[in-house]
Recover the amino acids of this structure.
């Protein structure tokens, strides 16, 4: 049963699951266009910061809190919405969360409300009783993998180089998930102002491929 539960969450977080993650660059489109992120090393540094000090960390804490049952899903959803630093970033988490909840509901027959993405996943995955650290690591890997795909195409990086960046960040993802599993909402904090400002500038960027 544990194997089935793990495979279920892996399916929900795979690129094939219809959350539309490919349409959201999390501000990466802007920093690539401005030349602030160039090459594999620059991208790895940018993404590592997002994972450990930015939205990755915030989502990880919210997800773990929901999986542990330390707060209600309505409360967590309100917190997740309040933490979004821009209209596009709010749109990113809400639209993906609604798509995940809708699809999981269609598969399982459960009634799942549209929520911010980490909260939607927490509500969907809670009955599977998997360790919060495991679910969170898979969530962060999926998040990072989507951005690696975008960087591979638009910096551009070669496919091997993009996967090398992701592989290099796996220890960072594991450590972040482990910390989040022990964290509380009091540990929520960010220090990625440059990435947040890039997300704001994306809203008025003249040429845009991605929604965020």
């Amino acid at each position: 049963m544990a194997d089935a539960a793990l495979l279920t969450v892996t399916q929900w977080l795979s690129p094939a699951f219809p959350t539309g993650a490919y349409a959201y660059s999390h501000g990466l489109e802007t920093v690539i266009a401005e030349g602030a992120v160039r090459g594999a090393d620059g991208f790895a540094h940018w993404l590592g910061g997002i994972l450990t000090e930015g939205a990755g960390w915030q989502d990880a804490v919210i997800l773990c809190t929901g999986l542990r049952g330390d707060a209600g899903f309505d409360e967590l959803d309100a917190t997740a919405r309040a933490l979004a630093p821009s209209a596009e970033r709010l749109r990113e988490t809400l639209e993906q969360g609604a798509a995940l909840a809708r699809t999981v509901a269609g598969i399982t027959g459960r009634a799942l409300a549209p929520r911010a993405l980490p909260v939607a996943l927490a509500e969907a995955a809670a009955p599977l009783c998997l360790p919060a650290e495991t679910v969170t690591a898979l969530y962060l890997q999926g998040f990072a993998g989507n951005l690696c795909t975008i960087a591979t195409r638009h910096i551009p990086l070669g496919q091997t180089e993009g996967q090398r960046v992701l592989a290099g960040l796996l220890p960072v993802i594991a450590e972040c998930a482990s910390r989040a599993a022990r964290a509380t909402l009091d540990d929520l904090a960010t220090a990625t102002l440059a990435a947040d400002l890039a997300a704001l500038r994306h809203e008025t960027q003249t040429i845009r491929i991605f929604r965020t």
Summary: The radius of gyration is 16 Å. The chain has one domain: 27-202.
